[in-house]
Queue: 4 jobs
Job 1
Amino acid sequence: MDIYSDVNEQLIFEELAAITGVAIVAAGEAMYDIQRTGCWTSWYTGHMYMTDLLRGNRNKCLAVLRMDRRVFRDLCNDLSTRYGLEPSRELSVKEIVGMFVYTVGNGVGNRTVQDRFQHSGETVHRQFHNVLSSLIRMSDDIIRPRDPTYSTVPKYIEEDERYFPYFRDCIGAIDGTHIHASVPHDDRTRFIGRKGVTTQNVMAACDFDMLFTYVCAGWEGSAHDSRIFSTVLSNANSKFPHPPFGKYYLVDSGYANQSGYLAPYRGQRYHLEVFRNGPDISTPREAFNHAHSSLSLVIERTFGVLKNKWHILSTMPPYSFRTQVKIVVACAVLHNFIRLRTLDDPDFIAYSDDNCTPHVSGTEASTSQVGASTSEHQPFIGEELEMAALRDMIAAEVFTSY
């Protein structure tokens, strides 16, 4: 009896060993097959995806690439013929630019782009930076005043009796805005803005066609607007388009009322919603602040278009901070490129009303603040008497029209 039991146990053991061996071999072959199979082998390639976007429904192209098909083709042509962007053996310029625009427009990461366009992470990363470099080269040609002499009155002002002839010498508006920043833990303190999140403070100037004429990115979120402004003005290498004699930008109460930069009266009602919910305008200073707030809202609306079109600005991935700064400038380049080539872009149309109050989720729409009350007869520190006199004259003229 014991002999038979030993034999049976031996047979069972041998059968289990054989089964286990077969299973191990099968598992090894399966792993080998998985390793041999490429990761991005979908039949629906990135090239096919771009072809569908550029030949399919216009609204889908606008939603995904954030611009019209014609504008996108013009962008690809300019980047390749003028700004050094080259195709690779596997990717056309359209697909390379498409991956970049898909990334910054939808605020997605590298892995999402890999899956959508069926390319490796290294390829996505490399081509992203190739496009970024080309857009930075384009920035000097596109983020600038179209007429550096400012010889004509902006049509936006000339054709609106609320602003003409009072603001006929105004050439644009300046303000700051906060863009989300991903920074190491040790740097968080100086990048935390007013709302307790890490941001970079971006100063920009725009004209009344909602085109950026200057962008200064890269300041930490805790930096004050006036500090950035004074540094830009004093830096001969900043490429800032200083106003010619007799011309001026509109600035908010965080800046000094100085030659070339017209600020509102401090200690008075300023923002439009305050006027809407308050008593009628009763003084020249209130009339001026109301007109100033309405006209200078163009910079807020321009920031609104920028952030709503390029979602990466609200969810910045953890690139190096230098790359994050370049991304902000590149998005401003794309913003101007689209605006210069079409007037019916839905994002710009949505912010075309100068009575709208821009709202951008996830980031601070602006860094502007209402100034504290000051003496009725004493100019704000740093204010020049010449600009104070100009402001008083405009205030008197505007008040007569109310």
Job 2
Amino acid sequence: MYYYLLPLYLFLFIHSGWSEDTTHKYTTKYDNIDLENVVKNERLLKNYVYCLLEKGRCSPDGLELKKNMPDAIETDCSKCSEKQKEGSDFIMRYLIDNKPDYWKALEAKYDPDGTYKKRYFDSQKHEIATIES
């Protein structure tokens, strides 16, 4: 059941009740999804990726994600809850580390300048430096 909600956490930039108000936050309705189980289901992961890439059909939540993805990337998830930010990082790190073909296609469409990937590698360097100190 929760697997169906992957798009809400794939780049976790989803909300209901879109508003132009920059203080508006995305809904926390789906914050308790077990994302580790979600990424283990290849069929669902592929369906959502294809939805985002306009290569397949979208569920209603997939359409919502696709509509809001550019804003969330542009604003560095400023409207996300803390749990959504953590979930977003988890999904993106998973795709970068384990599904590079999916990541490259999504990055080309939604983050062509590679801003997120650069932040990801910078944070990895920082985490390694912290562990080594």
Job 3
Amino acid sequence: MDCFSIGSIVVVKTMHDDLIEGQVMAFDLNTKLLILKNVSENSNRLNNVFIINLPHCKDVTVKKELVGSENSEPQSINLQRLSNRVRNQVEQKKRLVSALKANASEEAQNLYIFLAKMLTEQVYWNGIDIVVFDDVVIRPPYRVENVEAKSSGKQRELEYIKKLVMNRQNQINSLASSKAPETSSTKN
């Protein structure tokens, strides 16, 4: 087929015999790239987007041809949203690298990542200590009792971080107890 109409439904059979069904978002005849979207299995609000190199496909079948120009304009891409997603992913990878470089325990690294996801740039390492809001320090072994403020007057921030650390500890404890094998004691 020379061209695919935007909005048409097609089924692509890949070289690995995978079937991809979706709505045509774009097609470039020169590069023979086809972009399809379909509704995500995880959420009806999300879409999966596939960029398919047609020379590497076994078969393409048009399931439903879109007639008319009702949906011929491709949707615009929200570049700001895309840029934010890229920036967030880069920041997350930087946090992971920072946690690994700190040479701290796995538990400390997980706590750091947990805090950094919520507080982004306001969490960093100082040696093996985790520093939050430039004024709250979490020292090894990274428990609630190891959270302290560098200066007075930061009680609100201190209590907030203690609460987050306690919530994280409770998550870990509940996860560990749910994974622990049940033991029964029977005496003969």
Job 4
Amino acid sequence: MEQWVTAASALLAFLLYYNTLDAGFVYDDRRAILSNPDVIGHTPIKALFENDFWGTPLTDPGSHGSYRPLCVASYRLNYALSGFKPWSYHFLNILFHSVATALVVTTARRLLPAYCTRVGSAVAGLSFAAHPIHTEAVAGVVGRADLAACNFFLLSFLLYCEHSRLRNEHQRKPCRHITKDLTHRQLSINVQILRFSCHGFFEQIATNFRKLLKASKIGTPVMKTCDVDSGTLKLKKCQCNSDVSAYSYELMQWFTLAGTLLFATAATLCKEPGIMVVPLCILYDLLRDTRHDESSLKGALCIATSARTAASCAASCSTIPLSPLNNM
């Protein structure tokens, strides 16, 4: 069902703008494409990273200042494949819009509550595909900067969501081995409500890189045993303490975080507002960790209350005097 919603939304996005394939170059398309030396190949590839969106050097006083080399590179690719035939430029715009619609459905499915995931993701995808606010971006070739930035923006955010999921799952993963009684457990609550670190856009990169270098030194897990009275009880390997499992999570966290930064950079190089995915990831991490810490605090308080009640009951029962047997 979920795949059908994604496919239907992307197909609707394509069909609604299919008629733009017969359109030509209009307004800013002429200056950005027809008269842009970076598009028609009159300049070397490195000039894409030295000129602005319109082909003017950034050091020129008359430069517009818009720095979008990846978008200009896509125009150059279109020109290399089909010259100045406008249908190929419009086709790539429609394709970008369809992919962005599919990514919106995936993002909605990731963020919405479980009870409204199906309906909510369908509404989000179909609304995004058909909303008239996207007409200028899709129908005009220069609107590709918005379309490409939107795709990289969503990819970056989705990768960070996966990074956050892997990190939290690894931290909460229970150790499946024999434990002591509840009365011997020590309960430790460490709540960080206002944690605003994004868990490593800078410091976790270095941490994960060190763990990446240690991955080649992983050894095989050792089977643990413990003696119980006269017998020996063999325990299965503890999944929580397994080096292989731990390092696999660390590697996945590293790759998803690196992908987040890579796509965030690509979104910015398509259009400047793409950099806003970084504060969005920080805000998402803050809200997610706050909610997780609050739920963990509630669960910990419930366990502590239960343990305290059980201990009080045991203490009160031990103080009750026992009647002599001869009085029965």
